[in-house]
UniProtKB/TrEMBL annotation:
This is Helix-turn-helix domain-containing protein. Gene3D superfamilies: Winged helix-like DNA-binding domain superfamily/Winged helix DNA-binding domain (1.10.10.10). SUPFAM superfamilies: Winged helix' DNA-binding domain. InterPro entries: ArsR-like_HTH (IPR011991), WH-like_DNA-bd_sf (IPR036388), WH_DNA-bd_sf (IPR036390). It comes from the Bacteria. It comes from Amycolatopsis dongchuanensis.
Length: 224
């Protein structure tokens, strides 16, 4: 089950029962609505609380003894953790396009800033080699979901990085003039932050049937 639907159909029913309630509801009330044993309801409720989708609070005491726990949707996640990040990305890309006559350079600069922020930096006294910088770049790209592969030239140091998966493919298909320069800037910013003797000079979108190709060259080479 995905983050939108943790635990299967039964857990979805438990979540929906909480969402339908006009006030915080207890285990017994949820069990009755869904038609399950209270222990089963409690199991799914614990999982929803652990996932951060539901909050558990102590209800108002109705008599002697400890007040019972009641449950309510967590603010901002009442739709079961549904998010619209792609819509947000479309809005931001549209803003970049509409506010500059040269969106590609602007996107590259944004990418450089983020690449410098994301890269795993060496300790101050460590001198980074081309191979070491490429390894750190590949690790960063892998963390971001690009499925990167460094390709050595004639058995030597890598001069290309293949990006076999684009985590922003749907956006890149519509906004290649922004997304691809942003990716190039991401790599350039990371390598610049490392003060590496290598940089990314160009990114060829979909240059191979299953990959985009990033070209690497000495850091004094002209970037594209």
């Amino acid at each position: 089950m995905t983050a939108h639907d943790p635990g299967g159909e039964r857990r979805r029913q438990v979540l929906q029962a909480i969402q339908r309630a006009t006030e915080p509801v207890g285990v017994a009330g949820i069990a009755e609505q869904v038609g399950i044993h209270p222990n089963t309801a409690r199991f799914h409720l614990d999982a929803l609380v652990d996932a951060g989708i539901v909050e558990r609070i102590m209800g108002t005491p109705s008599g002697p003894g400890r007040p019972r726990a009641v449950y309510l949707p967590r603010p901002g996640r009442a739709r079961g953790d549904e998010r619209r990040y792609r819509m947000l990305a479309e809005i931001l890309l549209g803003y970049v396009t509409s506010t500059t006559t040269e969106p590609a350079p602007a996107a590259t600069e944004m990418g450089r800033a983020w690449g410098a922020h994301l890269i795993d930096r060496p300790v101050p006294s460590q001198t980074i080699t081309r191979a070491g910088a490429t390894d750190r770049l590949v690790a960063m790209l892998d963390d971001l979901g690009f499925a990167p592969e460094a390709v050595p030239r004639d058995g030597g140091v890598p001069d290309r990085v293949l990006l076999r998966h684009c985590p922003f493919l749907e956006l890149a298909e519509r906004h290649r003039d922004i997304v691809c320069p942003l990716h190039l800037g991401l790599m350039q910013g990371a390598l610049s932050e490392l003060r590496a003797p290598v940089t990314a000079t160009a990114l060829e979108p979909f240059a191979e049937p299953d990959a985009c190709v990033t070209h690497l060259a000495p850091a004094n080479a002209r970037t594209a």
